[in-house]
Amino acid sequence: MKKPSTLIAAFILSLPIVLFTGYYETRWGEKEDDRIVFFIKKKPTLQFRFVNIFATESEDRALLFKVNKEDRRYAIDYCKYHLGIVIEMKTQEEMDTCKRGYYATFKKKPITYINHESWDVEPE
Fold first, then answer.
1. 45 with 19: CB under 8 angstroms?
2. What CA–CA distance (Å, rounded) separates 53 from 76?
3. Which of 19, 31, 93, 98 is surrounded by the most beta carbons within 10 Å?
């Protein structure tokens, strides 16, 4: 009898995590530079995985006319849910606004930031 109530409780507790967190993968030139970036969504959605077309070294995604329909949809979703910027991706200015929002996220300290220089323990 406890199994259904446990499953319901687990579902209720995990729902906010799914609705308000997301992630994307970076695509840099060197494979060891790639990473998964988790973020808190600005608006709830069941979508968990996002594609950030700005987290790449590809020059093909720098100009709007070079971006295909699928990548436009990715950018619209990414900007809306991660950055809170609602765009239609019809102009280069909208794309640049979202790109500036992405680069502005670098100015924030990560949640897991640790200042290794302030450790009292001597490295071995």
1. yes
2. 10
3. 98
Give, for all 124 residues of the chain, the pLDDT tens digit: 567 888 898 889 899 999 999 999 887 767 667 888 899 999 999 999 999 988 887 666 667 778 889 989 999 999 999 999 999 989 989 998 998 898 888 775 544 443 444 444 444 4
Q: List, as own/partner pairs, every contact residues 47-51 make where C-beta atoms lie below 8 angstroms and the sequence separation is at least 24, other chains included.
A: 47/22, 47/77, 47/81, 48/18, 48/21, 48/22, 48/23, 49/22, 49/23, 49/24, 50/22, 50/23, 50/24, 50/74, 50/77, 50/78, 50/81, 50/82, 51/24, 51/77, 51/78
